């Protein structure tokens, strides 16, 4: 469960806030959306939750994830996964190495088994040794999602992850991501400026 | 790394500023005091203006000053103009790739190696005259010409020009790469201007401010260089830097005071040269505005002169190295024979004896100063990410300061300071002195690539494995492996080429390939000199080649590299 209580962000040394305070909850398996035009602070909000906020900003309020106060924790201890517009697969690793990087301290056999398993779910069986540069855009996007989820995050942040894909791929990939979130049963927060990306019946918050 | 553990990184810029500025400032201070008669460690405690009076009363001072400024300004000016000319004709043309590859090794070769090679080539007994004798010149003995070490410093200008041309060409190419070059060229040419015209009228005026720092460093270096001037520069009088160095190493210690005054006088001269350059850079652009906008179109001029210039430069440098190689295998080689009568492997077989110590000391000094510089630079650049970028950029400019101050102006003072701390003649002291000159180049070479790294890779990595330090090594350092290796190679070759820091701070206990090569060049055995120079050039070349190979090809596919990292 993710809870935001009066969460707000301002420039350090400046009283003005980027947006009016946000309060809402996201249940496990649920995708909530935050919408607003470019430059309204959507990505900054995600950075505050992920723990990558630049020092130019000061957050206030509370972010609680499964009873843990996130603002007090460094990024490494928050267990928050992020999906960006770009897949950010590490170019010097192949598919398997990228996925292995996200797995915790597991044995080699176990790692191989789980990687094969998730690749199969994503219809990428046998792609372990593929070079990242030789994948299509859609394949890269899927590997990127698999990688985020293998780290077993307690929350997934989606920073316009669909915006760089073309229309045909987009709907298909969206369904894939939402199904994965459902299966993992974790809360997810999506920022976007496109209404099509928001799942039906999801709660939508506008940043002002 | 995450925001929270970023604060301790402030140690790096603090330490780096200390490492860079303490030697510079204390060095200048302890040069200033002796110039006014105060040098208690040698028993001078009487404040006076005597050193300054003696300096300006000395019969050689004025002429030496003129030689320093003229040879420095002439060589740097010519290097800049020819680099711009070559760039305007060759950049991103068919010949460019070839040109880059051919010039790259010249960047790694130390200045003094090239200078010694030129001496072997151009001296009266050198290869050029041998090839023309006796059939053309009629000489069966080397003539008494001063074709090197000429009193006007022309051979010095040639050597400096030859070495600075590739450096400026590369710096200009890097700066040009950051500009919307193709768009400017397309627009300019669609308006009827030739390619070279677009370069001179539109691109170069924007380019010059971007290479201000390298150009200032080249000017300061050329006006104050000691090793190259000792090898190929005029002797009676020598350039001011050499004269000052002779005073500092004079057996009569009272000359040290005049040396200090001379060093500061050189500093003032170079300061004025740099100010004039800055003034010219600003005003030339304004004055030439009328010419830029006069609307005249030329038909494209031939690219041949540019090609000829480049070929000549490369031929000169290439032949200088070839003649060096021949000498190292020569036994009897009488004038005017083109090739030795008898060959031998003896010099190389003995090299294990006479070159072992300089080789290993060079290697150790270069490795440690380059590694130290790399560590500090990465720390500083990482700190930039976690702090106010604009402020960080401002203080990092201070790193370049030692490149703008003549070495001879503060190394004597630094020696005095390190003597007090009992660090002179010790590894730590010499490594420190090298680092002062290595670090700016490492920073220059690494900064753009490091700052261009897509930091979201790190955010993604930490969100995946929750281990910032491991991610830093496995992701960031691994992805930046090539620029880091290249920066290391740059630092390594800068250290190999250092002459004065080793001599001043080493207190005679350190001999490197460079100090040995310079010592041998004035009258030593040519065969041994040749071996020393070849080793001195090979070491940096080897490290540069290793830097190109360090990373598996898969790690740095050009596509992912340009697409992700340099955006």
Per-chain topology:
The complex is a heterodimer of chains A (208) and B (567).
Chain A: E1 2-11, E2 22-26, E3 31-35, H1 42-50, E4 57-65, E5 68-69, E6 80-83, H2 95-102, H3 108-121, H4 137-150, E7 155-159, H5 167-184, E8 188-192, E9 204-206
Parallel strand pairs in A: 3-8, 3-9, 6-7, 7-8
Antiparallel strand pairs in A: 1-2, 1-4, 4-5
Helix pairs in contact in A: 2-4, 4-5
Chain B: H1 11-35, E1 38-39, E2 44-45, H2 50-57, H3 61-90, H4 94-108, H5 111-122, H6 127-132, H7 154-177, H8 181-190, H9 195-207, H10 212-224, H11 227-232, H12 240-248, H13 255-287, H14 289-292, H15 304-329, H16 346-354, H17 356-385, H18 389-396, H19 401-404, H20 407-420, H21 427-451, H22 456-465, H23 468-479, H24 481-497, H25 500-506, H26 513-521, H27 526-549, H28 558-565
Features:
heterodimer, A: alpha/beta, Rossmann fold, 2 domains, five-stranded parallel sheet, four-stranded antiparallel sheet, 5 helices, globular, B: 567 residues, mainly alpha, 28 helices, disordered C terminus
Question: How would you sum up this structure, described in words?
Answer:
The complex is a heterodimer of chains A (208) and B (567). By secondary structure, chain A is an alpha/beta fold. Chain A folds into two domains: 1-79 and 153-208, Rossmann fold (3-Layer(aba) Sandwich); 91-152. Chain A is 30% helix and 23% strand. Chain A has a five-stranded parallel β-sheet with strand order 6-7-8-3-9, sandwiched between helices. Chain A has a four-stranded antiparallel β-sheet with strand order 2-1-4-5, with helices on one face. In chain A, helix 5 (167-184) links the parallel strand 7 and strand 8. In chain A, helix 2 packs parallel to helix 4 (137-150) and helix 4 runs parallel beside helix 5. Chain A is globular, with a radius of gyration of 17 Å. The model of chain A has no long low-confidence stretch (mean pLDDT 89). In chain B, strand 1 and strand 2 form a beta hairpin. Chain B has helices at 11-35, 50-57, 61-90, 94-108, 111-122, 127-132, 154-177, 181-190, 195-207, 212-224, 227-232, 240-248, 255-287, 289-292, 304-329, 346-354, 356-385, 389-396, 401-404, 407-420, 427-451, 456-465, 468-479, 481-497, 500-506, 513-521, 526-549, 558-565; strands at 38-39, 44-45. Chain B starts with 10 loop residues before the first helix and ends with a helix. Chain B is globular. Chain B is mainly alpha-helical and 567 residues long. In chain B, helix 3 (61-90) packs antiparallel against helix 10 (212-224) and helix 13 (255-287) crosses helix 20. The longest helix of chain B is centred in the middle third of the chain and has 33 residues, at 255-287. Chain B contains 28 helices and two strands. The relative contact order of chain B is 0.13. In chain B, strands 1-2 form a two-stranded antiparallel ribbon.
């Amino acid at each position: 469960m993710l809870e935001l209580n009066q969460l707000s962000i301002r420039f350090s040394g400046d009283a003005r806030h980027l947006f009016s305070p946000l309060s809402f909850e996201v249940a496990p398996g649920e995708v909530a959306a935050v919408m607003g035009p470019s430059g309204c602070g959507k990505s900054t909000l995600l950075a505050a939750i992920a723990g990558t906020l630049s020092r130019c900003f000061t957050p206030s309020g509370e972010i609680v994830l499964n009873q843990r106060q996130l603002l007090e924790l460094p990024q490494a201890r928050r267990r928050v996964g992020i999906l960006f517009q770009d897949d950010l697969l590490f170019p010097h690793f192949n598919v398997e190495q990228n996925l292995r990087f996200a797995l915790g301290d597991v044995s080699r056999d176990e790692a191989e088994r789980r990687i094969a398993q998730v690749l199969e779910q994503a219809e990428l069986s046998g792609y372990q040794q593929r070079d990242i540069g030789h994948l299509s855009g859609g394949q890269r996007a899927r590997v990127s999602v698999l990688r985020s989820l293998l780290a077993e995050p307690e929350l997934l942040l989606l920073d316009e992850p669909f915006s760089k894909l073309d229309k045909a791929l987009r709907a298909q990939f969206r369904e894939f991501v939402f199904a994965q979130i459902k299966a993992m049963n974790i809360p997810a927060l999506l920022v976007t400026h496109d209404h099509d990306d928001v799942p039906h019946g999801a709660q939508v918050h506008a940043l002002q | 790394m995450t925001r929270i553990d970023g604060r301790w990184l402030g140690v790096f810029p603090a330490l780096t500023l200390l490492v860079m500025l303490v030697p510079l400032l204390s060095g200048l201070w302890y040069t200033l005091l002796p110039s006014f008669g105060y040098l208690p460690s040698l028993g001078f405690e009487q404040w006076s203006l005597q050193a300054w009076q003696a300096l300006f009363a000395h019969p050689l001072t004025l002429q030496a000053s003129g030689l320093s400024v003229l040879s420095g300004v002439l060589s740097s000016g010519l290097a800049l103009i020819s680099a711009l000319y070559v760039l305007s004709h060759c950049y991103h043309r068919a010949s460019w790739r070839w040109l880059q590859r051919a010039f790259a090794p010249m960047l790694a070769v130390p200045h003094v190696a090239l200078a010694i090679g030129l001496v072997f080539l151009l001296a009266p007994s050198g290869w050029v005259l041998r090839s023309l004798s006796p059939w053309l010149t009629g000489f069966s003995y080397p003539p008494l010409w001063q074709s090197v070490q000429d009193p006007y410093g022309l051979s010095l200008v040639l050597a400096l020009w030859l070495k600075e041309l590739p450096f400026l060409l590369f710096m200009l190419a890097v700066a040009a790469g950051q500009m919307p070059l193709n768009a400017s060229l397309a627009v300019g040419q669609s308006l009827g201007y030739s390619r070279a015209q677009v370069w001179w009228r539109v691109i170069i005026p924007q380019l010059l401010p971007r290479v201000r720092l390298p150009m200032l460093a080249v000017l300061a270096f050329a006006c104050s260089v000691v090793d190259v001037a000792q090898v190929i520069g005029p002797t009676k009088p020598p350039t001011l830097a050499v004269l000052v160095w002779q005073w500092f190493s004079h057996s009569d210690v009272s000359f040290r005071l005049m040396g200090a005054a001379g060093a500061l006088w050189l500093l003032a001269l170079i300061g004025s040269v740099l100010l004039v350059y800055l003034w010219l850079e600003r005003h030339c652009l304004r004055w030439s505005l009328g010419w830029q906008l006069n609307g005249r179109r030329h038909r494209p001029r031939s690219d041949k002169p540019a090609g000829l210039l480049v070929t000549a430069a490369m031929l000169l440098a290439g032949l200088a190295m070839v003649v060096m190689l021949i000498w190292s295998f020569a036994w009897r080689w009488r004038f005017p024979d083109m090739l030795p009568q008898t060959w031998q492997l003896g010099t190389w077989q003995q090299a294990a004896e006479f070159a072992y110590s300089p080789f290993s000391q060079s290697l150790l000094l270069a490795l440690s100063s380059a590694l130290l510089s790399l560590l500090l630079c990465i720390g500083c650049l990482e700190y930039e990410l976690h702090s106010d970028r604009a402020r960080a950029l401002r203080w990092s400019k201070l790193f370049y300061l030692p490149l703008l101050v003549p070495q001879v102006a503060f190394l004597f003072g630094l020696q005095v300071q390190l003597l007090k701390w009992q660090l002179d003649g010790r590894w730590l002291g010499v490594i420190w002195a090298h680092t002062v000159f290595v670090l700016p180049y490492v920073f220059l070479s690494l900064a753009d690539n490091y700052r261009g790294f897509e930091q979201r890779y790190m955010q993604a990595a930490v969100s995946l494995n929750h281990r910032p330090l491991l991610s830093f090594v496995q992701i960031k350092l691994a992805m930046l492996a090539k620029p880091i290796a290249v920066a290391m190679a740059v630092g390594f070759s800068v250290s190999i080429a250092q002459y004065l820091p080793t001599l001043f701070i080493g207190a005679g206990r350190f001999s490197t390939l460079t100090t040995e090569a310079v010592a041998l060049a004035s009258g030593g055995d040519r065969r041994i000199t040749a071996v020393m120079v070849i080793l001195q050039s090979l070491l940096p070349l080897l490290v540069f080649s290793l830097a190109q190979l360090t990373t598996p090809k898969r790690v740095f596919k050009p596509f992912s590299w340009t697409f992700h990292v340099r955006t």
